[in-house]
Amino acid sequence: MKRILGTAKGQKTRCRRESMLLYAVTDRTWLGDATLAKQVGAAIKGGVTFIQFREKHLDKEAFIREAKEIREVCMNYQVPFVINDHADIAAAIDADGVHVGQKDIDALDARRILGEDKIIGVTARTVEQALRAQEHGADYLGVGAVFQTNTKADAVEVKRDTVKAICEAVDIPVIAIGGIGEDNVLQLAGNGLCGIAVVSALFARPDIEQAARNLKRLSEKMVNQ
């Protein structure tokens, strides 16, 4: 079944702004006795609207196997599912798309691999990077880190006025990422963001489903302020 994944000015229909409200990035650090698929299911039940599968330390076979499991969960709930970095794997397993950083392949190259119907997200830390990504066919941007974070070792903190300038410069959805939790979501209000991306604020919590409910409520409030 083909999912309806939205509209952006000047772009094909691939990615709805409302699907960006609560964007979860996987991390197996806090798995314990659970499976990643089970954690993702709990997150979606609680209100997560978008899933990115990011695993840096799995071999290719294990990566593909786990990605397929997460894809099935997301399909069951009709939640968009993208893979971090690996456009070739995203294409091979028919994921909804890929998310790439500034040190990964360019959005143009990702589009050539994935075709016109898939979602491409790009990390941006400057207005110039954001405009280039949009010009090259990105469907949404992840901007950050907006707060200090221990989840990504090389994350560079982006000032709030830069976040706002990026949101004003592009037509595609923009989400914030990096160090976001229940205690600071509302500090991002008024910048034009469509939502937030979270890792530990969700998957490190003992009750993932409840954490998702809390974060979604706060993200909605942030977006509408």
TrEMBL record:
<keyword id="KW-0808">Transferase</keyword>
<keyword id="KW-0460">Magnesium</keyword>
<dbReference type="InterPro" id="IPR034291">
    <property type="entry name" value="TMP_synthase"/>
</dbReference>
<comment type="similarity">
    <text>Belongs to the thiamine-phosphate synthase family.</text>
</comment>
<dbReference type="GO" id="GO:0009229">
    <property type="term" value="P:thiamine diphosphate biosynthetic process"/>
</dbReference>
<feature type="binding site">
    <location>
        <position position="179"/>
    </location>
    <ligand>
        <name>2-[(2R,5Z)-2-carboxy-4-methylthiazol-5(2H)-ylidene]ethyl phosphate</name>
    </ligand>
</feature>
<feature type="binding site">
    <location>
        <position position="123"/>
    </location>
    <ligand>
        <name>4-amino-2-methyl-5-(diphosphooxymethyl)pyrimidine</name>
    </ligand>
</feature>
<dbReference type="GO" id="GO:0000287">
    <property type="term" value="F:magnesium ion binding"/>
</dbReference>
<feature type="binding site">
    <location>
        <position position="85"/>
    </location>
    <ligand>
        <name>Mg(2+)</name>
    </ligand>
</feature>
<dbReference type="GO" id="GO:0005737">
    <property type="term" value="C:cytoplasm"/>
</dbReference>
<feature type="domain" description="Thiamine phosphate synthase/TenI">
    <location>
        <begin position="22"/>
        <end position="202"/>
    </location>
</feature>
<comment type="function">
    <text>Condenses 4-methyl-5-(beta-hydroxyethyl)thiazole monophosphate (THZ-P) and 2-methyl-4-amino-5-hydroxymethyl pyrimidine pyrophosphate (HMP-PP) to form thiamine monophosphate (TMP).</text>
</comment>
<protein>
    <recommendedName>
        <fullName>Thiamine-phosphate synthase</fullName>
        <ecNumber>2.5.1.3</ecNumber>
    </recommendedName>
</protein>
<feature type="binding site">
    <location>
        <position position="104"/>
    </location>
    <ligand>
        <name>Mg(2+)</name>
    </ligand>
</feature>
<feature type="binding site">
    <location>
        <begin position="199"/>
        <end position="200"/>
    </location>
    <ligand>
        <name>2-[(2R,5Z)-2-carboxy-4-methylthiazol-5(2H)-ylidene]ethyl phosphate</name>
    </ligand>
</feature>
<dbReference type="GO" id="GO:0004789">
    <property type="term" value="F:thiamine-phosphate diphosphorylase activity"/>
</dbReference>
<dbReference type="InterPro" id="IPR022998">
    <property type="entry name" value="ThiamineP_synth_TenI"/>
</dbReference>
<keyword id="KW-0479">Metal-binding</keyword>
<dbReference type="InterPro" id="IPR013785">
    <property type="entry name" value="Aldolase_TIM"/>
</dbReference>
<comment type="pathway">
    <text>Cofactor biosynthesis; thiamine diphosphate biosynthesis; thiamine phosphate from 4-amino-2-methyl-5-diphosphomethylpyrimidine and 4-methyl-5-(2-phosphoethyl)-thiazole: step 1/1.</text>
</comment>
<dbReference type="GO" id="GO:0009228">
    <property type="term" value="P:thiamine biosynthetic process"/>
</dbReference>
<dbReference type="InterPro" id="IPR036206">
    <property type="entry name" value="ThiamineP_synth_sf"/>
</dbReference>
<keyword id="KW-0784">Thiamine biosynthesis</keyword>
<feature type="binding site">
    <location>
        <position position="152"/>
    </location>
    <ligand>
        <name>4-amino-2-methyl-5-(diphosphooxymethyl)pyrimidine</name>
    </ligand>
</feature>
<dbReference type="Pfam" id="PF02581">
    <property type="entry name" value="TMP-TENI"/>
</dbReference>
<feature type="binding site">
    <location>
        <begin position="52"/>
        <end position="56"/>
    </location>
    <ligand>
        <name>4-amino-2-methyl-5-(diphosphooxymethyl)pyrimidine</name>
    </ligand>
</feature>
<feature type="binding site">
    <location>
        <position position="84"/>
    </location>
    <ligand>
        <name>4-amino-2-methyl-5-(diphosphooxymethyl)pyrimidine</name>
    </ligand>
</feature>
<feature type="binding site">
    <location>
        <begin position="149"/>
        <end position="151"/>
    </location>
    <ligand>
        <name>2-[(2R,5Z)-2-carboxy-4-methylthiazol-5(2H)-ylidene]ethyl phosphate</name>
    </ligand>
</feature>
